[in-house]
Design a protein that fits this description.
Helix content is 34%, strand content 15%. By secondary structure, it is of the alpha/beta class.
């Protein structure tokens, strides 16, 4: 089944798991560039993952993205997500010469568009670093816009919205459950509207134990 073929809106946990978290395995390939997607509430986690990929040699240059008007900027901070991530990465030990910054975008579509306007035209492979629940959307956007570019998916784990724990929370704002549920419905909506590549939904091997 493809994303666009999902008709339900009241999805079960098993359906959310398949839609959001299936088929996002890391190939562990090395790349020149990695796009680190911004989120004001998950900056530390995503930058930490980016730093680890950089330190290990998996990626040579980090591209931090995100402006000031994203939906996660609930505090209306005037410092862009990209600059916050850059500053934290430098504190961790990333060399400034290995950092690119894109701070005009305010959603994932804009992240991708602005980043690729900065990069050489001959890129064949690029890494994506973001929260696990966000990986498939990034992958599907890139696959539609740049079908000839291979993507390496590097998940940033945060302990509450990951594939093995999102379902342990209630549906309150910014909980793992709310993020995964929102993402599942968004993926289906975007696929139906032809805004992302219409991916096949693979069976997930994870077992869901819902907390009631």
């Amino acid at each position: 089944m493809k994303l666009s073929e999902v008709e339900k809106t009241n999805l079960t946990d098993e359906e959310i798991q398949k839609i959001v978290y299936s088929d996002i395995q890391d190939s562990f390939k090395n790349t020149e560039y990695a796009i680190v997607f911004g989120n004001s509430m998950l900056i530390k986690e995503r930058v930490t993952t980016a730093f680890e990929a950089y330190k290990s040699g998996r990626v040579k240059k980090l591209i931090f993205t995100g402006g000031t008007n994203g939906v996660s900027n609930q505090g209306h901070d005037l410092v862009s997500e990209a600059i916050k991530m850059k500053n934290l990465a430098i504190q961790m030990g990333v060399l400034e010469k290995d950092i690119l910054v894109e701070e005009h975008s305010n959603n994932t579509f804009e992240n991708v568009d602005y980043v690729f306007s900065m990069l050489p035209n001959n890129i064949e492979i690029i890494s994506i670093i973001t929260s696990e629940f966000h990986l498939k959307r990034c992958k599907a956007i890139l696959q539609l816009k740049f079908p000839n570019i291979e993507t390496v998916l590097i998940a940033s784990k945060d302990g509450f919205s990951d594939s093995n724990n999102w379902f342990l929370s209630d549906n309150s704002w910014n909980s793992g459950r709310s993020l995964a549920t929102y993402e599942a419905n968004l993926l289906v909506k975007y696929a139906k509207n032809h805004q992302i590549y219409d991916l096949e939904i693979e069976d997930s091997k994870e077992k869901i134990k819902t907390v009631i």
